[in-house]
Write a structure and sequence with these properties.
single chain, alpha+beta, D-Maltodextrin-Binding Protein, domain 2, Dipeptide-binding Protein, domain 1, Dipeptide-binding Protein, domain 3, 7-stranded mixed beta sheet, 22 strands, 32% helix, 20% strand, globular, disordered N terminus
């Protein structure tokens, strides 16, 4: 498949953006200007779209959650720290309920007070279809991240309980994504559409301007409750620039001073021009989610799935990326306590791939014909077009005819929530959807549990196997971290041995910054904190 037309179009777009952006660059003072990979400004209601990139730049900027991560460091995988909740613990009388003691004196951007009623109102907007402020759009983008939340109740003005139905060790890893938007602002403006144009959270930034597909302008929340995290920049400008060459041109011209995912072949030139390249390996996988359930999918055969994993030369893809990736040998990195000892060793072995395909009935006279849905850009997708072209050629070498259905990032995400049994998925055999997997819930529960079927979950493969489910359920009920790690290692062994996905590489999170951008700590996480960034004048 030839994507050259897309690339040429990117250069044309670059010229237009640069001409329009020079005045902005000349006028900017203390302004952080980010070139995103997303094609549009993420929605601003509280549960952003545009994938995890939307959460990173339009979730944790405008909003806070009950808990957060210690992102302002680069040495360890971030862990949960207090956010709008100062303290939490399991209810001693009911292990299936967590108690949260909330921070007092916090105000929304509109001046309204944050309290337990506001948290409950935000649960209702996602999970109570009878609530007047229920929002199907936010439910689609967030509900799959908080499946353990079954109930909630107010105890006091700044204290509430969240029920999980059964004891659940993963609740904190889920509610970190529940961004609390202002009930008072919604009531004042009369609905979510108006709210999205003038959003109100409790976060470190406020929205000054939201122009879909063009830009978002955020300014510091001068009264932010967490004084050390009050933003240091005067303005934060978010620009959707999905084409990687356009992002590079925008950085070099000064239209932006911070870009996501610079193309690897541009990195030497960027360094030569004084740009700072930031990388930091973190739990993130670039895979193909294979369709196993339903009719007309040859990937129901484990021999075929294993063959695909053996046909991919991951070292070649790492070289394509200029070393800015790590070959994947499973869902997690080999040094993870969850890796275990899979019996199937993922490696480059085209001869064994051909043997397995022949055993399954495929070969030169009957090539395996499959179609993968991919996107030209998007949250965490790295350099999807050239990477997919390499995979396509590698599979062709073992008599696999791989075709692509190329769609915009949000359209791919839309297909993901429809599930493998939807009629629209009948001609598809995989989705190319990169994923952050920093928690056990993120890495396993939301992709391989019977309870994670779309649209509420992300089990697009359609996997539901009793032995695996028993391990997942046991891990969910295990609060001792060391014991849970042992169970998760067995989960990972099962997942790899069955080759449920085609795993390619782990990301190292590359970004390019102009030298005047100071104080950015690149966390070992998909999520980042911009509050400590300064612009050297």
């Amino acid at each position: 498949m030839n994507f050259e037309t897309t690339r040429r179009g990117g250069f044309a777009l670059a010229a237009a953006l640069l001409a329009a952006g020079r005045a902005t660059a000349q006028q900017a003072r203390g302004e952080l200007r980010i070139g995103m990979t997303a094609a549009d400004i993420p929605t601003t209601r509280g549960a952003p779209d545009q994938g995890a990139e939307g959460i990173r730049w339009m979730g944790f900027t405008l909003y806070d959650s009950l808990v957060y991560w210690n992102l302002n460091q680069e040495s360890e995988i971030p862990h949960i720290v207090p956010g709008l909740a100062e303290r939490w613990y399991q209810n001693p009388e009911n292990q299936a309920e967590w108690i949260f003691e909330l921070r007092r004196g916090v105000k929304f951007h509109d001046g309204a007070e944050f309290d337990a009623d506001a948290v409950i109102w935000n649960f209702e907007k996602l999970l109570d279809r009878n609530a007047p402020h229920y929002d199907p759009q936010q439910r689609l983008t967030l509900a799959f991240r908080i499946p353990s939340v079954k109930s909630w109740r107010k105890i006091e003005s700044h204290k509430l309980a969240i029920g999980t139905g059964t004891p659940d060790a993963y609740l904190l890893d889920q509610i970190v994504f529940l961004h609390i938007s202002s009930p008072a602002q919604w009531k004042k403006l009369g609905g979510w559409d108006a709210f999205s144009r003038s959003p109100s959270g409790t976060g470190p930034f406020r929205a000054q301007e939201i122009t879909p597909r063009q830009r978002a302008v955020l300014v510091p929340n001068a009264e932010y409750w967490d004084v050390p995290r009050r933003p240091k920049v005067e303005r934060l400008l978010l620009l959707p620039i999905p084409d990687p060459n356009t992002r590079v041109a925008a950085l070099l011209s000064g239209q932006v001073n911070f870009i996501e995912a610079p193309p690897p072949d541009a990195v030497p030139a960027l360094r030569a021009q004084g740009m700072v390249i930031k990388t930091n390996p973190y739990p993130h996988i670039w895979p193909y989610i294979l369709r196993i359930a339903g009719e007309n999918t040859p990937l129901a055969d484990v021999r075929v799935r294993r063959a695909l994993n053996l046909a991919v030369n991951r070292d070649e893809i790492v070289a394509l990326l200029g070393g800015m990736a790590v070959p994947a040998t499973g869902m997690v990195l080999p040094d993870s306590p969850w890796f275990g000892k899979p019996g199937f060793r993922i490696r480059y072995d085209p001869a064994e791939a051909k043997r397995l395909l022949a055993e399954a009935g495929y070969g030169p006279r009957k090539p395996l014909s499959i179609t993968f849905m991919i996107s030209p850009s998007g949250s965490g997708q790295m350099q999807p077009l050239p990477m997919n072209e390499v995979v396509q050629q590698q599979l062709r070498n073992v008599d696999v005819d791989l075709k692509f259905e190329v769609v915009e990032w949000n359209a791919l995400r839309g297909q993901r929530v429809k599930g493998p049994l939807d009629a629209s998925a009948r001609g598809l055999h995989a989705l190319n959807n990169s994923m952050g997997i920093s928690t056990p819930f993120d890495a396993f529960q939301r992709f391989f549990s019977c309870d994670a079927a779309p649209p509420e979950g992300l089990n697009w493969s359609g996997i539901c196997e009793p032995p695996l489910q028993a391990l997942l359920d046991q891990a969910t009920r295990t609060f001792d971290e060391a014991e849970r790690d042992k169970l998760l290692a067995r989960v990972h062994e099962h997942v790899v041995d069955n080759a449920y996905w085609l795993w390619v590489v782990h990301d190292v999170n590359p970004r390019a910054l102009r030298p005047e951008v100071q104080g950015f700590f690149q966390a070992k996480s998909w999520y980042q904190d911009l509050t400590q960034v300064t612009i050297r004048r």
